[in-house]
Write a structure and sequence with these properties.
mainly alpha
Length: 64
């Protein structure tokens, strides 16, 4: 029975240490969030600019 208890303790220690490593690895810093928000805002601005320019050029076409 003591061998079984040792196995359980070993696997419990491995499980808890794995959780601690995962917490450290998955942490997102505030800098990462700010940079992601800035890149998303830049992408939206570029998309809006391109869309406006394409619409303006399409409206200037003389099809008649």
């Amino acid at each position: 029975m003591s061998d079984f208890k040792q196995y359980i303790q070993y696997y419990w220690i491995r499980f808890t240490s794995s959780l601690e490593v995962d917490r450290e690895r998955g942490e997102v810093s505030a800098t990462t969030v700010v940079m992601a928000a800035a890149l998303i805002a830049l992408a939206i601005a570029v998309g809006a600019t391109l869309s406006t320019r394409i619409k303006d050029k399409a409206n200037r076409l003389n099809l008649g």
